[in-house]
TrEMBL record:
Domain of life from the UniProt record: Bacteria
Claim: tRNA processing is one of the keywords in the record: no
InterPro entries per the UniProt record, alphabetical: Flavin_Rdtase-like_dom (IPR002563), NADH-dep_flavin_reductase (IPR050268), Split_barrel_FMN-bd (IPR012349)
UniProt organism field: Actinoplanes teichomyceticus
Gene3D superfamilies recorded: Electron Transport, Fmn-binding Protein, Chain A
UniProt name for this protein: Flavin reductase (DIM6/NTAB) family NADH-FMN oxidoreductase RutF
GO molecular function, one term: riboflavin reductase (NADPH) activity
Length: 174
């Protein structure tokens, strides 16, 4: 921020650039049912272990916003380092919607919700929608865990400074 304190509303481009300094994991949020849908999301985190809760933020104008409300459940796939094309696919607003949206994407219906879980992902979570909170131009979607899976190995896909990245650092020891 060039050593100056700026207000968030003063310069949207500077705000995006500053937020981009924080590396995040990359996920695909999905809903199942007769109108399945997917969306790339990097605002995902655990909230609580007891009960097991997660949150993901969804733009209020995104197709996914109403689909999550309608479905009442959702799945989150944590993408592996080599899955940047999957992330790009689900971020592309020009992709077909519905079942065609998943053509060519390895996925399987989650056992608890039927929402697609992305094949090759590091982890998958299925959740029932518990709360939706106002988060400005986004909604903060909180889900309670119904099922989970964790794959062995591989590094996560990261997003930093507007680009997909991989973990390349050596492990830090004490």
């Amino acid at each position: 921020m060039d050593g100056q304190l700026r207000t968030a509303s003063a310069d949207l481009r500077a705000l995006r650039r500053t937020f981009a300094a924080f590396a995040t994991g990359v996920t695909v949020l999905t809903v199942g049912g007769s109108r399945p849908h997917g969306m790339t999301a990097n605002s995902f985190t655990s909230v609580s272990l007891d009960p097991p809760l997660v949150l993901v933020c969804v733009d209020r104008t995104a197709v996914m916003h109403q689909r999550v409300l309608d479905a009442g459940s959702f799945a989150v796939s944590v993408l592996a380092a080599g899955q940047h094309q999957v992330a790009r696919h689900f971020a592309d607003r020009r992709r077909p919607l519905g079942l065609a949206e998943f053509d060519g994407i390895a996925c399987e219906a989650g056992p608890a919700t039927g929402a697609p879980l992305i094949g090759g992902a590091l982890a998958g979570f299925e959740c029932v929608l518990r709360h939706m909170y106002d988060g400005g131009d986004h909604s903060i979607v909180v889900g309670e865990l119904l099922s989970m899976r964790r794959a062995d190995g591989d590094d996560p896909l990261l997003f930093l400074d507007g680009r997909f990245r991989q973990v390349l650092a050596a492990e830090v020891t004490r």
